[in-house]
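Homework-ish question, so no full write-ups if that breaks the rules, but can someone show me the predicted structure for this set?
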Amino acid sequence: MRNSTFNRILIAFFLIATAYFVYVMLDNDSPVNFAEKKLNLGLDLAGGSYFVLEVDTSELTGASQIEKALDSNIEVIRNRVDKFGLTEPVIQKKGTKQIIVQLPGIKDPARAKKLLGQTALLEFKLVANDFRTKRATSEIDKYFAKNKLEEIKAIGLEANIPDLSKEQEKEPFTSYIAMGGFIRAEFLDFIRPYTDSLFTQQKVLSQNQQLAVMKVAEDVKLKRGVPYVILNAKAELDGSVLAQSSWRFGGGSASELKSSNTPEINLEFDRTGADLFARVTGDNVGRQLAIVLDNIVYSAPNIQGRIPGGRAVITGTFSVTEAEDLTNILNNGSLKAPLKIAQESTVGPSLGRDSIQSGKMAGIIGLAVIFIFMMVYYKVAGIYANIALIFNILFVLAMLTMFGAALTMPGIAGIILTIGMAVDANVLIFERIKEELKTGKSVNSAIEAGFDRAVVTIVDANITTLIAAVVLYSFGSGAIRGFAVTLMIGIVGSMFSAIVLVKSMFNTFIIGKKKEKLSI
Amino acid sequence: MEKFNFIGNRKIAYIISSILVIVSIAALLIKGPNWSIDFTGGQQIMVKLDPINEGTEKISIDVVRAALEKEGISDAAIQRISNSSGNDPKDLNSVSFIIKTREDSAIEATEEGLGQSDIITAIMKNIDGYKIDEEATNIEVVAGSVGKELKSNAFKSVIIALILMVIYIGIRFQFNFGIAAIIALAHDVIIVLGVFCIFELDLSATIIAALLSIVGYSINDTIVIFDRIREDMRLSRTNQDLNKLFNLALNRTISRTIITSVTTLIAAVSLYVFAGIVIRDFAFAIMLGTIVGTYSSIYIASPLVLDYFHAKSNNTNVFSRFTKKN
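A: Not a homework solution, just the prediction itself:
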């Protein structure tokens, strides 16, 4: 029998897909890697930290309040995680009060923990006046021009920005790192440590000023960068004196959507807060008061007059989402120690490397022994089975790359087990062919009968294993899923390779060549 | 063709299996499984301690224990492990430890940030002359609440997997085949659990994964044999001896059964020996499961179906049900 056209197309499809993704896996930077696929390593192999943080909701009532608290915590955590400059951090909600944080490749988990759990600090700070702002920025210019020029040049080169001109070298901050008041996106990682604490530590700015960045939407950040402001370092008030905040549409209540124009934010202070706020606003009419969370300015409204009585309104061009985010930050930004680690898993990078090494070792040795075993026992047919086996392993790796799934240590175990189990389909077929040969059938009809009869068994047997793998996937967390995924892909691959690939090898090399004897 | 008398010896197998299952259940009830921190909550920390000065001796387990006890951590299980990456000469006197405690260890946030594991703190505070190699540190902390949730999920998933399999086998074969297969599976799972219990090995989430793959493997094995029995029943004449037919089917599939077990065992053994401490218990469970699973599909699952047929009906009836389907 010849190979059917359908089978040929199927084989071509599987082999090309496998070859492509294995190639892309080995050479990420290759120009043919259109979709930028790569084989991700799980935290247990790459090293890194996985946290499940639980928000203390004991003092909160109502689902919406809890959800808001969770959202504002995620916001705070996201800002802090940004500081590590990791390529693929993951922050997500889990259930009603948990947050999952994954930090692959983090070098210093102890510092990460410190930053993640720190009480978020909501503060009100005055924006420095024009004169002081000018002086502060020129101080930053001088400091960078003197100390950091090489580093800045290197970042510019990396990001393909034209090199600094002679003038820019004198004012690297105001004319190069920042353009028209916006810090370029390429320099955000560079500038971050300075806004956090370095300028203060190095006493770069006189008169107790600090550099801070504004919160902006992601697309603005990518296109134009992030605006900066110079603040008075001393906080006028902190979040603890804020009783509550809400927003509504200006000129009407939130329910009267029609009469609305833009949202306004209402602030309500407690008694101490009200007194402080009245004094601060009274002393600084005409200036801007910045709302600062974790050194990021969320809004900097103008003080239009002294505000007594502890009730203030911020007007401006807020969108509804911005208004919601801001009130959320105002209400929840200063929760005291609201987080705890419900689960932590930190794997040092060298442990990860060891695991990869020993996993490879186990795989290669297991594979070699099975290879020899199959060849000794099934001779030429064993070679076919071994080819199918190699295809299988490559297929699992290719599919992991295609789906962007992470390879974990249990995943490696899954691949190695697949090696052991994948030969099963071939063994079933070969044993059946042997049996048929014993009954005196010709080579051709023995092969045909062997495949026909074994296929039913193979499908039945593999579907039950697939059931186990699917259940495992839905139950499992991280590492276990890695195992289930490789098991599932392995099952599909081994069914294909035994029923289609090995069959076609028999067709081509035995039946096609009209061989009288079969080495099996 | 008929080399082995599996069916004739099934009573012996029943007795052996019953003893093994009873011992395992007894161990499970009396000792209870050694739930890992995945399920109970607690900490498991692998830490490598390097001497700061050259020529300092390897640190002893007693020093570590004393350091922990000083901070009031007295119930910790400490295990000294050989260094896998010992090729580096500067690692010559480094030692790794696995330290476990089972208290509910959710770590509260403080003003300065999320707290550090108290085990790490105790080591940093109380051990002089050695420093922790952060690169080779593995920290697992699980709160009790998280563990409870995982435990109930694990139970559910094993039960769901079993039910789905009975349904599938029930549809493809007959219901009694499904029941026999599940009894064999329960037998495998109970014995593996029993062994873990007796040897006080940790029952972790990864081991649950291993159990489910054992279930998958064993059912695979069982189905191959069932398939052959079904095929032979369809082909044979109605007056044939059932015992003989079952035994023949087992004999016809035995070489496949053995070869597949051997290759799976090769893979599992190579994992056990080479893949490092992280995966060792997992590999052990798979090894054990492969052996028990192979045994049970030959000596438990198929004979149970046979005995069910014997008890329920005469030969003619049994065969007619198969021939009708054809």
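Now go work out the reasoning yourself. Hint: Chain B touches chain A through 82 residues (CB under 8 Å).
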